[in-house]
């Protein structure tokens, strides 16, 4: 594929990270959910993917996500749902499941599940925050009040120096789009299969989130996928 894989976009090494914006990440989450929903619920016989991960999500010229098939063991739709949940958490945090910060029984699921109770800004991928800042900026292009740090530090927003309209839009994106998407990732990656969402439920919720995104008043025009 012309735009390589999601793995390349999330974890490029020795290259500047241009960063996937929020709409692109939402679209990728929808594209992959649509593919799994089709395989699980609309194929006869039912098809299980078995190996859902960023390296198997390929992006074409229009950044449409295409799922690469793989052969695995112990096929289960709930296994696909779990892997999808982990992929969503990676997509919006920029973390790998094997990240060195996950010690003493902690993992990307518990990391996000704990943080969404009040520390969500600390776990969102800084590259995503950076793209949101660019898109929500109004008249000030050189904003020294917003400082983005690496994953091991907090993301700090100095509200006194940030344009109030930009800050309001940032918060709207955060609470109406990013938080509910992370909650989907957490719900899909629950330890007990019976507590996980179905892909049909996931797809329905993601379309609701996309609708919320499209309803947000954006000060800069940009191309959108319907």
Write down the oligomeric state: single chain
Give the % helix: 40-55%
Strand content: under 5%
Distance between the termini: 22 Å
Written overview of the protein:
The protein is mainly alpha-helical. The chain is 46% helix and 4% strand. The protein has 7 helices and 4 strands; from the N terminus they run H-H-E-E-H-H-H-E-E-H-H. The strands form 2 sheets. Strands 1-2 form a two-stranded antiparallel ribbon. 31% of the residues are buried.
Topology:
Blueprint: H1 6-10, H2 22-41, E1 57-59, E2 65-67, H3 77-93, H4 108-115, H5 126-136, E3 146-147, E4 156-157, H6 164-188, H7 199-215
Antiparallel strand pairs: 1-2, 3-4
Helix pairs in contact: 2-3, 2-7, 3-6, 4-6, 6-7
Can I get a quick summary?
The protein has seven helices and four strands; from the N terminus they run H-H-E-E-H-H-H-E-E-H-H. By secondary structure, it is mainly α.
Descriptive terms for the model:
226 residues; two-stranded antiparallel ribbon; globular; single chain; two-stranded antiparallel sheet; mainly alpha
